[in-house]
Specification:
Blueprint lengths: L1 H38 L3 H11 L3 H4 L1 H13 L1 H10 L1 H20 L6 H31 L3 E3 L5 E3 L3 H5 L2 H25 L4 H29 L1 E5 L17 E5 L4 H5 L5 H18 L3 H23 L2 E3 L9 E2 L7 H28 L6 H5 L6
Antiparallel strand pairs: 1-2, 3-4, 5-6
Helix pairs in contact: 1-2, 1-4, 1-7, 1-9, 1-13, 1-14, 4-5, 6-7, 7-9, 9-10, 9-13, 10-12, 12-13
């Protein structure tokens, strides 16, 4: 039983790591897409921006698959419920992400201004929408999601998808996610781009970091007053993987800060996130672009860790039936399943990190506008 509990906690941590990898690597590419028409003023500059991320963007999608796959395999109840609750939102996300590879392949096939401008807007939409949805999802689960189960275990939705899309707190979280993507994407353009792309990207990346820091601070104050969720009965971490018949749960104002009060060392998580954004903005102004990129990584680490430690052990609380909230304790797969997943994760996650690092090392260096324009095989 103790091993099963340890595996549950381990996969909660691994899920956070995978979601952070997704935010950093996929978010960076999305940020470049958002900045395509803002930083690139000519067709040559925009093509250069696309070729900066061109060798890596499809490989970075591995993190998107890993994040979804981890939820599917390690937390099957969470996967089934969340993908149903956010079904319409997920369809919007899916269609926006389908636009992205099509835009990469088709944008430069026709040498016509209207044709390329249309695909540029496709890049903006397919970059901004996924990051807004990504951040809004964190905002939604922090506030609680409207769903409940029947005695048969069948899921029922109690809130319209418009309630999730138009929720002020969720929208704010979405804007913060987009801002961090712009920060990370702009920093990547600084690393591999030359003037005038470099200076323009520096301006937008710095702005993204500052906006994210402001929203992060406002969000912290907001969370300290919003309803969080706490157990009011005895909790068995080794409980059966079912949301029915669990301990009582109550919504209480400020409850998401309980873990921080109980374990003050956890305040390091928001501190790392906030300082990563502020110091990252300063680093970019000092042209310390490599330092700035890694501080962007720390910003995501601190942000996602803050949400994780605040909510633990809750994964997706129910606002309409709190006792049926999904947690690390009642939404995981079997011990056998988690054990084999841990074995394969120990092999493949380091492998992914290794080949990703190698790819970026091999394809390092500046991408020049004239080289891209004169290469018929470039994007």
């Amino acid at each position: 039983m103790e091993i099963y509990i340890a595996l549950k906690v381990l996969w909660a941590v691994l899920l956070g790591i995978l979601l952070t990898g997704l935010a950093v690597m996929v978010g960076m590419d999305m940020g470049v897409g958002v900045l395509l028409r803002l930083v690139g003023k000519t067709d040559g500059e925009r093509r250069t921006m696309l070729n900066i991320i061109g060798p890596h963007w499809d490989g970075n999608q591995v993190w998107f698959i890993l994040g979804g796959g981890a939820i599917f395999a390690a937390f099957p109840t969470l996967y089934a419920t969340s993908f149903s609750v956010f079904y319409v939102v997920m369809i919007l996300l899916l269609f926006s992400m389908i636009m992205r590879p099509v835009a990469f392949e088709y944008r430069s096939k026709v040498d016509a201004t209207k044709w390329r401008d249309t695909w540029d807007w496709a890049f903006l939409i397919s970059g901004a929408l996924p990051m807004i949805v990504y951040g809004a999802a964190f905002g939604n689960v922090l506030e609680g999601v409207g769903y409940h189960y029947s005695w048969t275990g069948q899921y029922f939705q109690d809130e319209s998808f418009l309630g999730y899309l138009l929720n002020p707190f969720a929208v704010m979280c979405g804007v913060m996610s987009l801002s961090l993507a712009v920060y990370q994407g702009g920093t990547m353009l600084m690393l591999r781009g030359e003037e005038p792309i470099y200076s323009r990207a520096r301006t937008y990346a710095t702005l993204g970091a500052v906006v994210a820091a402001v929203i992060f601070a406002v969000g912290g104050v907001w969370i300290s007053h919003m309803n969080g969720y706490v157990f009011t009965g005895t909790v068995d971490p080794g409980m059966a993987a079912t949301p029915l018949g669990g301990p009582a749960v109550a919504a209480k104002a400020g409850a998401w800060l309980n873990n921080f009060h109980a374990y003050p060392i956890l305040w390091l998580a928001p501190a790392i996130g906030f300082l990563g954004m502020i110091v990252g903005a300063v680093a970019l102004q000092l042209h310390m672009k490599i330092v700035g990129w890694w501080l962007g990584v720390l910003s995501w680490v601190g942000t996602i860790s803050t949400v994780g430690v605040a909510m633990f052990p809750f994964l997706m609380p129910s606002s309409t039936a709190p006792a049926e909230s999904l947690t690390v304790w009642n939404a995981t797969g079997s011990a056998y399943n988690l054990g084999w997943m841990t074995f394969f994760a120990a092999i493949f996650v380091p492998a992914i990190l290794s080949y990703t690092s190698w790819c970026y090392y091999v394809m390092r260096g500046k991408v020049k506008v004239e080289t891209v324009v004169n290469d018929p095989h470039s994007y």
